[in-house]
Target: Retrovirus-related Pol polyprotein from transposon RE1
Amino acid sequence: MQSPSQVHYAVAKRILRYLRGTKDFGIWYKSTNDAKLVGYTDSDWAGSVDDMKSTSGYTFSLGSGIFSWASKKQATVAQSSAEAEYIAAAATSNQAIWLRRILEDIGEKQEEPTTIYCDNKSAIAITKNPVQHSRTKHIDIKYHSLREATTRGEIELKYCSTEEQLADIFTKALHETNSKNYA
Model:
C-alpha cells in the first residue's frame, strides 16, 4: 500500500482487536441422528447506496451446525422489502434443492419438505398466492421457481421473528450483542 495514513493504521488495529476477541469463536458440530436440512433466508432492502440493490443472505444447517451460507447482492432493484425478501427466498430455495440432491446422492434423502425460515410475512404470502396483481406482476419469472418448489413439496417457507433469523448476519451490520449470538 502506498502512503498509509492514520486512518489505515486505526482500521488495521481495529481488525486485529476483532481477531483477538473472536479467536475462540467457531462452528461446533455435535453427533446427532437428526439429518434434517433447515434453511434461513433474509434480505435488506435497497442497502447499496450506489445502485439501491438489496443484499440476500442464507444459511443451512444439517443436524447440529451450519454448513452452507452465502451473501450476495441481488441482480435487480427490489421495489419493496417484501420483493427483496421474496428474491432472497428464491435464491435460498434454489440452494436447498441443490443440497437436497447432494444429500440424496450420499444416501441422506430428505423425505419431508426442507423448511426455510423467513422473517417477512408478505414474502411468504407472495409465495402462496400464484395470482399476479399490481404489486407482484413486475417480478421476474425466474424468482417464481420458489412457488414451484413449494407446490412440489420440496420447500416449505415458514415465518420466524427477526430475533430468530440466523441469516440476518449476512445482510446487514449487527450490533455486537446480536452478532455474538451467531458464534
Observations:
- Helices lie at 6-21, 81-105, 121-128, 145-151, 176-179.
- The CA atoms of residues 128 and 147 lie 7 Å apart.
- The mean pLDDT is 88.
